Structure formats: structure tokens, C-alpha cells
Amino acid sequence: MATTKPRVRKVGLAPLRLVGTWVEVLSLTSAEGDATSGTETRVSSPDVLRNPGEPQDYFVRLRVWASDPETCVDLTIAGRFELASGEDDPEAQRMVEYNAPAILYGVARGIVAAVSAIAGRERLELPSIDLARLIDG
User: Fold this and answer.
1) What is the 3-state secondary structure (H, E, C) of the chain?
2) Structure pTM?
3) Rounded mean pLDDT, 6-10
4) Distance, CA of 35 to CA of 70 (rounded, Å)
5) Cα separation, 88 vs 90, whole angstroms
6) Model confidence band, residue 88 (pLDDT cutoffs 50, 70, 90)
């Protein structure tokens, strides 16, 4: 079977840039009988705050709770995002509102998987979720 190299193209950068993330709360405990089979995941509506001193800066916070038969994880993650200068239009605001929480959730997925594995338990894998439905709902 012949293999072909994937075509790589130059892409434009999004006007939203992740400046940094940090964990505000991280708790990992044994589920001790209160978890059902499978993984249950809950996600808060994101908090999106504009920095009044720097109108292109935003702080976004997201809480993720997940439990499987062995483990329960409660994580609050936050991030600082920056819009390219002059991006004060509705499309840019929508990017902050939807893309920033999606980026944070991706970071949260990695943290939850790593922390549960380091704790000597089966890796707790957070599922992909429809953040737009959460935000709009």
C-alpha cells in the first residue's frame, strides 16, 4: 500500500491568543461507591471577564467535575486570553465567548488524565463536549 505525505499548508493565526493558564482548585478523591458505571462529567458555564485596564485582555474560568467508579475530580481552571489589537467587533467577542472556554476545556482534559494516572488509578478521560450548547443553553 502506497503512503502519501499529508499536505501541509500555511495557516493564518486566530485573533485570540492564550497568554497563560492556571489551576485554581484541584481535588482528586476516591469515588467510594457513589459513582455509577461509566464516567459522569459536569461543566460550569464559563465566567468571561474583560480586563477594564486592558480592553484586549480577558480572563476566563471554567469548572469541570468528573467521576468514574474509582475517582472523582473537581477542577477549576482559568486562563488569560488576548485579542489582537483592534478586534472589538462582534465576531471577535464571539471568539472569546466560545473559543476561550473550548481551549481551557482541552487543557483541563489533559490535567485530569495526568493527575488521575499519577494517583495510581485508571486514567480518567474527559469526553468531548458541546460547549456551544452549554454556553447558549
Assistant:
1) CCCCCCCCCCCCCCCEEEEEEEEEEEEEEECCCCCCCCCEEEECCCEEEECCCCCCEEEEEEEEEEECCCEEEEEEEEEEEEECCCCCCHHHHHHHHHHHHHHHHHHHHHHHHHHHHHCCCCCCCCCCCCHHHHHHC
2) 0.85
3) 86
4) 8
5) 7
6) low
CB neighbours of residue 66 within 10 Å: 23
* Cβ-contact 27, 73 below 8 angstroms: yes
- Residue 8 CB coordination number (10 Å): 6
Here the cell at position 60 is: 476566563
Question: Would you state the cell numbers that stand for residue 23, as one nine-digit string?
Answer: 489551576
Identity at 100, one-letter amino acid code: A
